[in-house]
Amino acid sequence: MTEMVYGTALVHPGEPILPKWWRTLDRWSMTCVFALFAIGLLLGLAASPPLAEKNGLDPFHYVSRQAFFGCLAMVTMVAVSMMSTLMVRRLATLFFLVTLVALVLLPVFGTDFGKGATRWYSLGFASFQPSEFLKPVFIVTSAWLIAGGQEINGPPGKFYSFLLTLVVVGFLAMQPDFGQACLVLFGWGVVYFVAGAPMILLAGMAGAVVFAGLTAYSLSEHFARRIDGFLSAEVDPTTQLGYATNAIREGGYFGVGVGEGSVKWSLPDAHTDFIIAVAAEEYGLVMVLAIITLYAIFSVRCLHRLMKERDPFIRLAGTGLVAMFAMQAVINMGVAVRLLPAKGMTLPFVSNGGSSLIAGGIALGMLLAFTRQRPQDEMRDILLSRRGH
């Protein structure tokens, strides 16, 4: 009866790793990720050649880079999804410390590539954005601390995770990168809420975020410019938002035709932050709905599996990763249709960007590892084991 309700997986002694991984994996979720990556390559073929031509590069330079980093991300995702949850937790905690140090050193060794925010390390042949890699491992580390705090005589995990959140959000805001800071805070808030945080505390945090936003608006010209552009009654047609809005309007239901779009010649970030505008113009509402559906299927299936999970750490970490993944997609598409102010955030697995793709592969690899079917203890067994400690 337990197996019927909680979807447990039978244990086959001596079963090889690969068959066991394939049997316990949520194959529908993985298929959605591969489909998003394929759509990203298709849109990259349309969006990136104009930028390559402007920079004097081979027409498919950026597409080739996207294919390379994307394939590397897919391999990374599969490899991480094969790991045990214990191994995932240990590696995530170690990687969190490494990326946190990289984030702290950004003001000294980082570069802004002329975009007004110091977010990257230039490696010559490529660039590295620490915040992309920090987000998923931070969520897993926070979930571990909070889950540990729920144990009898456990450490004050919620307090420690809160302090870590303040540190991470503070350094992200210093770049400034308020979009990633809000995304990290949102992911942590979801984990904390699922762990049983009181509503009054979450309301207080929301008030603190509003106060911080007002302060940033007063002190940061970069932030104020984006907010003013978002609140303006009229959209300047020569800005990225103006071009994106017009492209979405022109696309209609079925688009203007493959290769016939014009927005890719005007938008410098057509292949990254505003890739959904290219999709809407050339393929229409049909393509946009297909992309949204893939994100929705992936998120809902992962949450459905996590609801059956009895391990508090897996449940918290998985929920936080799903929430962050889905929210990043919502933010990217919301910016393109002017529902949200510009954030400089990629569309997961669809936008071009090495750091985004590989970090996404790590994040979803961990999530697929957490949502694999595994034997679940009876609730009475869990309670007895806790009493024994």
What does this protein look like?
The protein is mostly helical and 389 residues long. The chain has helices at residues 2-6, 17-24, 27-54, 61-81, 85-104, 106-109, 130-149, 157-174, 178-194, 199-219, 221-231, 240-251, 275-307, 312-336, 354-370, 379-388; strands at 121-122, 127-128. It has one domain. The protein has 16 helices and two strands. It has a two-stranded antiparallel sheet with strand order 1-2. Helix 4 (61-81) runs parallel beside helix 15 (354-370) and helix 9 (178-194) runs antiparallel to helix 14 (312-336). The two termini are 28 Å apart. Belongs to the SEDS family. FtsW subfamily.
Q: How would you classify the helix and strand content by structural class?
A: mainly alpha
Task: State the shape.
Answer: globular
Strand order of the largest sheet: 1-2
Spell the H/E element sequence.
HHHHHHEEHHHHHHHHHH
> Helicity range of the residues?
55-70%
Q: Could you give a short account of the major beta sheet?
A: 2 strands, antiparallel
* Average pLDDT for all residues: 85
Keywords: Cell cycle, Cell division, Cell shape, Glycosyltransferase, Membrane, Peptidoglycan synthesis, Transferase, Transmembrane, Transmembrane helix
GO molecular function: lipid-linked peptidoglycan transporter activity; peptidoglycan glycosyltransferase activity
GO cellular component, one term: cell division site
Subcellular location: Membrane
